[in-house]
């Protein structure tokens, strides 16, 4: 079996999960290198990884570069992806900087694996919220079409990084010690513990946040269908890992509940809970690769409209696992 030299760039929560997933899936590794802004050793599940300081010259002899995802003009992929590609590597970027570029394929392997053949050295990993949404709805879309999606997401703090996780721990511990919720912080900083915050990202057009617009534009690109009417509200909740989503959808073709049940039961990457009173929870999804779907039910006031509940580990399928699955597609092609 051919082996591939892989570089993982970034050792935050997603970067560490990438290292974990590469090992768990027995990825055909040749040399594995880990890069970040500063050199150090890190421990992942009892294995020590030597982290090197990233430079433009870091990608010599690299076949696949997995960027864990820091956005903006100072993000690693913006600074180094071009150099990695020039050195001969295929870049898989978990950040948002390249997702909507027309010359960059955006891929969820269960949805559009064929898109890997169109890459020009750079492949984008979708947003975590979008990934579980499209995996849950993919087969439904293929068989019956989708006219409308209304999404409400309940997103774990790990989606905001390690500091957000530490903040939730600190605020929770403070509340336990004092036996009441800590006071609201001064300024715009929001308290995570015992709270639900209906803002993820910055506010933009029509007062939707950047996270909410990601679910619209990325779903359109993944399904190659901008006719789907999509609206979402994204909420940060005091959960450490796994995003939960309430998904309302209207199909184009006439369909009954039983047909939707059958499709979900056959959908790749989906674990379907058929009993509406036996539903998946965020803790059930933590550390798992699948997208879990349950509480499927009809909207009795609107024809061909349904609700479902969807949970998935945002660090795995929502980020690291999906990126490694893309790398596996690269190896196959």
TL;DR?
The protein has helices spanning 13-24, 76-86, 128-144, 162-178, 210-223, 257-266, 282-285, 316-332, and strands at residues 4-9, 29-36, 40-44, 47-53, 64-67, 90-93, 122-124, 146-155, 229-236, 243-251, 270-272, 291-298, 305-312.
Oligomer: single chain
Main sheet summary = 7 strands, mixed
What name does CATH use for the topology of the largest domain? Dihydrodipicolinate Reductase, domain 2
Provide the structure class: alpha/beta
Rg calculated over all Cα atoms: 20 Å
Helical residues, percent: 25-40%
* C-alpha termini separation: 14 Å
Q: What's the structural domain tally?
A: 2
What count of helical segments does DSSP give?
8
- CATH architecture descriptor of the largest domain: 2-Layer Sandwich
Q: Write out the strand line-up for the largest beta sheet, numbering strands in chain order.
A: 3-4-2-1-5-6-7
What is the C-level CATH assignment of the largest domain? Alpha Beta
Given as residue ranges, the uncertain stretches (5+ residues, pLDDT < 50) are: none
- Kindly state the number of beta strands: 13
CATH homologous superfamily (4th level) name of the largest domain? Dihydrodipicolinate Reductase, domain 2
Overview of the molecule:
This protein is of the alpha/beta class and 333 residues long. It folds into two domains: 4-126 and 319-332, Rossmann fold (3-Layer(aba) Sandwich); 130-314, Dihydrodipicolinate Reductase, domain 2 (2-Layer Sandwich). 31% of the residues lie in helices and 25% in strands. A seven-stranded mixed β-sheet has the order 3-4-2-1-5-6-7, with helices on both faces. A six-stranded mixed β-sheet has the order 9-8-10-13-12-11. The chain is globular.
């Amino acid at each position: 079996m051919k082996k591939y030299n892989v570089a993982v760039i970034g050792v935050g929560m997603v970067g560490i999960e990438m290292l974990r997933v590469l090992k768990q899936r027995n990825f055909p590794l040749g040399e594995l290198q880990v890069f970040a802004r500063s050199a150090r050793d890190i421990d992942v599940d009892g294995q020590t990884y030597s982290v090197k300081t990233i430079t433009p010259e870091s990608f010599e002899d690299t076949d696949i570069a997995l960027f864990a995802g820091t956005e903006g003009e100072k993000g690693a992929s913006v600074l180094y992806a071009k150099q990695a590609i020039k050195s001969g590597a295929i870049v898989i970027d978990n950040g948002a900087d390249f997702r909507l570029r027309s010359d960059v394929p955006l891929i969820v392997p269960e949805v559009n694996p064929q898109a890997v053949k169109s890459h020009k050295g750079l492949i984008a990993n979708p947003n975590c919220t979008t990934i579980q949404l499209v995996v849950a709805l993919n087969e439904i879309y293929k068989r019956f079409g989708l006219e409308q999606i209304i999404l409400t997401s309940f997103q774990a703090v790990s989606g905001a990084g390690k500091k957000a996780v530490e903040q939730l721990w600190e605020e929770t511990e403070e509340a336990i010690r004092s036996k009441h919720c800590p006071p609201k912080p001064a300024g715009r900083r929001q308290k995570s513990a015992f709270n639900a915050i209906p803002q993820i990202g910055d506010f933009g057009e029509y007062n939707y946040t950047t996270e909410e617009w990601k679910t619209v534009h990325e779903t359109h690109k993944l399904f190659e269908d901008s006719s789907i009417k999509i609206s979402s509200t994204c909420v940060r909740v005091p959960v450490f890992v796994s995003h939960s989503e309430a998904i309302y959808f209207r199909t184009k073709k006439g369909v009954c509940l039983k047909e939707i049940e059958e499709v979900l039961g056959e959908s790749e990457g989906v674990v379907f809970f058929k009993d509406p009173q036996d539903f998946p929870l965020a803790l059930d999804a933590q550390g798992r690769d699948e997208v879990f779907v349950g509480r499927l039910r009809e909207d009795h006031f609107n024809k061909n409209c349904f609700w479902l509940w969807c949970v998935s580990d945002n660090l795995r399928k929502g980020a690291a696992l999906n990126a490694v699955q893309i790398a596996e597609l690269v190896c196959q092609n």
